[in-house]
Amino acid sequence: MNARSTGLIAILRGVTPDDAVAVAEAVLAAGFDAVEVPLNSPDPLESVRRIRAAGPADRRVGAGTVLSPDDVRRAADAGASLIVSPNTRPDVIAETVRLGLESYPGAATPTEAFAALDAGARAIKLFPGSAVGTDGMRAWASVLPSGTALVPVGGVDAGNLADWARAGASGAGVGTSLYRPGDTPETVAARAAELVRIWHQNCND
Fold first, then answer.
1. pLDDT at res. 203
2. Burial class (CB within 10 angstroms; exposed 0-12, middle 13-18, buried 19+) of 37
3. Does a structural domain hold residue 1?
4. 51 within a domain of the structure (yes/no)
5. What is the CATH number of the domain that holds 182?
6. Which of 25, 26, 133, 145 lies at a C-alpha separation of 20 to 30 Å from 183?
């Protein structure tokens, strides 16, 4: 990522296809690097398709809560370029890498993080971030290979994003504190802009 990248991923859990494009456009315009539609949202792959079709080819659009290699393939067919999971499953990571997509497997321990890297991941979703904490992330960073991206997800909000940024996180996934079903694009845009401001004021890149 370049010096002005945030690494911030908007988790649009519960978004509908009819709302997906407007909300995604709002957070991306505010400075988020990517959007993720969890697969337990209503018709999630249609939302991914619409977000992908509405923007440039290099737009980072993810599918979340990806639990199987078949999920990976379906998400790829819909246009997802990021595959985000709550767990470390080597066959999911391997299929993601085989298809040339970015893999963000969830890990709650260093053992899981190393297993994810062995399977081909280059980024680790610290999940839940609130349980790992900034001290835990620093400890992981001291033993994981240099350049491993660490992205906390779960409990990240405007109140603690600065702590994560100062601790060296590569980015963060932000969910309910950014978007809840029914929120207007304008409301989400304002929250996104504040999170981006906090990130840039506190990160070390």
1. 85
2. buried
3. no
4. yes
5. 3.20.20.70
6. 133
